[in-house]
Every structure is written in C-alpha cells, then in structure tokens.
Amino acid sequence: MPLNHNDQMTVLKDILSNHQTDCCGTIAECEQIERLVKSLMGNEQVGSHVKNVLPSIYHYGQAGKNSPNLDSHISSYQQQLSEWVDQLT
C-alpha cells in the first residue's frame, strides 16, 4: 500500500529526528530519505515551504549514503537536522 504525502512526511521527520537524537543511522535510512524526498518533490499537495528545504535534505541523504563514516556525517549535520525537522512540521 503506497503512503500518502502526510505519511511520507511523518516517516521523513522520524528518520531525520532519529539521526539528530542518536547521531547515528544506516545507509538504508539515507536511501529511504532520498526516495521520500523524490516522491514529495513531485507531489502537488506538498507546500512550497516544504519543497524549498527538500533539495538540502536529498543532498544530506545522498552524501550520507556515500560517506565513508556515516556517524561522522550525521554529527556534522546536527544543526540542519534540527532545523529540517522543525520546517517539516
């Protein structure tokens, strides 16, 4: 069953919030961030205030997926993670 955009936003916020809180994550989560952002970018029901931040989140997921040290990557984005979670609310 496909997720609607509200469900996708919830999952995306949960992953970003967990990264922010735990300072660690998985490559699979980074790949999921990419998929969620791509889907949300193409959805007309997503507001422009959210769409403006999605490219940065996509880049975060992509860079994390390719990072040799994912935990360090996540730690370096702590401020942005907090801001993104607030902006997606």
SSE topology sketch:
Elements: H1 5-22, H2 27-41, H3 48-51, H4 54-65, H5 70-76, H6 78-87
Helix pairs in contact: 1-2, 1-6, 2-4
Organism: Anoxybacteroides rupiense
Pfam family, one: YtzH
Protein name: YtzH-like family protein
Structural overview:
By secondary structure, this protein is mainly alpha-helical. It has a domain at 26-87. The protein has 6 helices and no strands. The protein has helices spanning 5-22, 27-41, 48-51, 54-65, 70-76, 78-87. Helix 1 (5-22) runs antiparallel to helix 2 (27-41). The longest helix is centred in the N-terminal third of the chain and has 18 residues, at 5-22.
Mean pLDDT: 95
Share in β-strands: under 5%
What spatial form do the alpha-carbon principal axes imply? Answer: globular
Radius of gyration, in Å, reads 12 Å
Work out the helix count. Answer: 6
Number of strands: 0
Low-confidence stretches: none
First-residue to last-residue Cα separation: 24 Å
Going by helix content, strand content and strand pairing, the class is mainly alpha
InterPro entries: YtzH (IPR025547)
Protein name: YtzH-like family protein
Organism: Anoxybacteroides rupiense
Pfam families: YtzH (PF14165)
